[in-house]
Amino acid sequence: METMLQVEGMTCDHCKKAVEGALTGLSGVKQADVNLESGKVRVSHNDTVSNEALKEAVENQGYDVV
């Protein structure tokens, strides 16, 4: 599966690494790619990962999923 998240507050490479690391740290997430310019995050994962879990992982890093 693939999910696109719109994330606000990411401005630098540190932000990118924090969000990608939080998402790939979830069981079942294969890959997370942040596009800083658009604020979009593409997450490849299996079907056991909920959108709520993805959102929570990002928000725990201090960013907002809209």
Question: How does this structure look, described?
Answer:
This protein has 66 residues and is α+β, with helices and mostly antiparallel strands. The protein has one domain: Alpha-Beta Plaits (2-Layer Sandwich). 32% of the residues lie in helices and 33% in strands. A 4-stranded antiparallel β-sheet has the order 2-3-1-4, covered by helices on one side. A hairpin with a 4-residue loop joins strand 2 and strand 3. The longest helix is centred in the N-terminal third of the chain and has 12 residues. The protein is globular, with a radius of gyration of 10 Å. Its main location: cytoplasm. InterPro entries: CopZ (IPR049740), Cu-bd (IPR000428), Heavy-metal-associated_CS (IPR017969), HMA_Cu_ion-bd (IPR006122), HMA_dom (IPR006121), HMA_dom_sf (IPR036163). Keywords: Chaperone, Copper, Cytoplasm, Metal-binding.
Concise description?
The protein has 66 residues and is α+β, with helices and mostly antiparallel strands. 32% of the residues lie in helices and 33% in strands. It has helices at residues 13-24, 51-59; strands spanning 2-8, 29-35, 40-45, 64-65.
Notable traits:
66 residues, alpha+beta, 4-stranded antiparallel beta sheet, 4 strands
